[in-house]
Design goal:
The chain is α+β, with helices and mostly antiparallel strands. It is globular, with a radius of gyration of 23 Å.
């Protein structure tokens, strides 16, 4: 029997968060562009998915073939700190003694009562398994040893949508631009400063909000594998996160309100379910597929240089673009290209598992198109496609039946949707369900944001920093429970386990047996590798018709301190 000791290092009390979608006016909607064959201004309509067919029919009367783009969003839960609001919370990070006697620092999501990962890393021989992460990219400035387990060479940054707009003749201006030092207002409600990076751009002028004025849209995609948002890097850190030379912030109270000092940790901080210390059995491949959109309402510019000079105000920190709003999304065409690219990686043996922490709502036509175009090619070649269930806090099956709307890719055939759990193994308040194939920790999990990234700059619940200035912080969302499952599956694949064996031995954390809330359960590594080990008995309470496990505050503290009761 393997034993490990968990010592209390830090016990921050995290407060109730708000759901903030990485979205905007185009998210979960369709943009229909039409360039009349007789000439004239481009016509655009931003519409609800169910209105696509009628919009296309209306625009075809203008003598053109409309270009329909469905947009999908990244959705995460941005932790906030409402003053004195302590209604939720108890993530923690602690020192953990490995079976080899080494001390490391791990967050709660990896301990024996959750993903049960540490002991599993000492298992025997295995082969390397690749996980493709279709997301916002992965930072090229990662700490060691995490950086060694990113296969940048097999990855790609796609510019599919911008290239398509240019070929189709929708761009009044097209080219490559470096916006380093330019500052824009982000839809999140914060300012974003562009990094030193070149983007392909397409500028489109049209009346996007139907008020009789001309608006300017600038679509941006880079062919460099990088991560300006931070989402893809945080996702990767849930799989392979292992960070040396961390400076931990010490706060004045468990509320994490005021930092008072710093501590340089001698121990590595491990956030990933299959980090490099796990014999390098899991590598991740970045597939950057996002698109940035700059929107200027009421002013139509023919070129990007006119916009930059006409709206720019020089500040101490850079050039601020007034009245310009920035959005971040995924589009149908780039995701289709990503699916096809990953399918080829699978055939080449470089990838076996895929993680997609993105999605959006669409009608039946969008559901069929998206599933067939950017999910099915990966499923057809045998990839295990793991996806986030979404953060709307709803029963997806009920929405589908009542309104005919589908959450893609969470409801696509052949995928494994993952719901999010909190530290008591209860279904997180924001998590979607039905369907769910698995559940995994997703409420205030610890991970890594790149230095200078949007989410990194926004992080309020900061654990510390590495030597490169990257941010270790707590964040939430099914976006982060999904890669924990993807990483666990990839690690078990490396040891010769099949998906059926993983399913059969996953840990029931809600209702016994397969259920719509966590599916087959949590694929906790130690429970699958060491089924004879004693585990914690979880007390259940009834909430409406759903039985959700719950641990009171005292019980959670006892778990932290290592007291466990064997399941009867």
């Amino acid at each position: 029997m393997r034993r490990a000791v968990l010592l209390l290092l830090a016990l921050p009390l995290i407060l109730l968060a708000e759901v903030v979608p990485l979205a905007g006016p185009l998210s979960d909607k369709a943009l229909v562009l039409c360039k009349p064959s007789t000439g004239g201004e481009i016509v655009a309509k931003v519409i609800e998915p169910g209105e696509v067919a009628q919009a296309v029919a209306d625009l075809e009367e203008l003598g053109c073939v409309p270009l329909v783009t469905r947009f999908y969003s990244i959705k995460v839960v941005i932790p906030e700190l409402p003053e004195y609001d302590a209604r939720i919370a108890l993530p923690y990070s602690g020192s953990y003694i490995t079976p080899d006697g080494e001390t490391i620092v791990i967050p709660w999501q990896l301990d024996r009562d959750h993903m049960y990962a540490v002991e599993a890393w000492s298992e025997g021989d295995g082969s390397s398994v690749g996980v493709a992460i279709i997301d916002t990219g992965i930072s090229v400035a990662l700490p060691e040893p995490m950086a060694a387990n990113v296969d940048f060479e097999s990855g790609i940054a796609l510019t599919t949508y911008v290239d398509l707009l240019e070929v189709a003749g929708y761009c009044s201006d097209y080219g490559t631009v470096n916006l380093n030092g330019y500052i824009v207002y982000h839809y999140y409600g914060v300012n974003y400063t562009f990094p030193d990076l070149y983007f392909k751009y397409c500028l489109v002028t049209t009346d996007i909000d139907y008020d009789g004025t001309t608006d300017t849209l600038v679509f941006l995609q880079t062919d460099q594998i990088s991560d300006q948002i931070g989402h893809g890097t945080f996702v990767a850190s849930q799989i392979i996160g292992e960070i040396n030379n961390v400076t931990m912030i010490v706060y004045d109270s468990p509320l994490m309100l005021t930092p008072v000092s710093e501590v340089n940790l001698e121990e590595p901080v491990v956030t990933g379910v299959a980090p490099p210390r796990a014999e390098n059995r899991v590598v991740v491949v970045p597939i950057k597929a996002d698109v940035h959109v700059l929107i200027l309402f009421g002013v139509g510019y023919a070129t990007l240089s006119e916009l930059l000079s006409g709206q720019g105000i020089t500040t101490d920190s850079g050039i601020y673009l007034t009245n310009v709003t920035m959005l971040n999304m995924f589009d149908y065409y780039t995701l289709t290209a990503a699916g096809q690219y990953v399918a080829q990686l699978v055939l080449e043996g470089k990838v076996k598992v895929v993680n997609m922490s993105l999605g959006g709502w669409t009608d039946l036509s969008g559901y069929v198109d998206s599933c067939q175009s950017w999910v099915q090619p990966m499923v057809d070649v045998g990839a295990t496609v793991v996806v986030a269930a979404g953060n709307d806090g709803i029963d997806m099956g009920v929405i589908n039946a009542a309104y005919g709307y589908y959450n893609v890719p969470a409801q696509c055939p052949g995928v494994l949707p993952v719901s999010a759990l909190d530290s008591s193994n209860s279904l997180a308040w924001f998590s979607n369900y039905n369907p769910a194939a698995f559940g995994a920790p997703g409420d205030y999990v610890l991970g890594l944001y790149p230095k200078g990234s949007l989410l990194g700059d926004m992080a309020s619940l900061v654990f510390g920093y590495d030597g490169l200035g990257n941010v270790l912080a707590y964040s939430s969302g099914t976006s982060y429970s999904s890669p924990e499952v993807a990483g666990a599956i990839a690690y078990l694949y490396s040891l010769g386990y099949s998906l059926d064996e993983i399913i059969q031995n996953s840990y029931d954390v809600t209702i016994e047996g397969v259920d719509p809330y966590t599916g087959y359960g949590m694929p906790a590594l130690g429970r699958i590798l060491y089924p004879e080990e004693p585990v914690v008995e979880v007390e259940t309470v009834t909430v409406s018709s759903l039985q959700i496990p719950a641990l009171p505050l005292l019980s959670t503290l006892l778990v932290v301190l290592g007291r466990r009761r064997a399941r009867k």
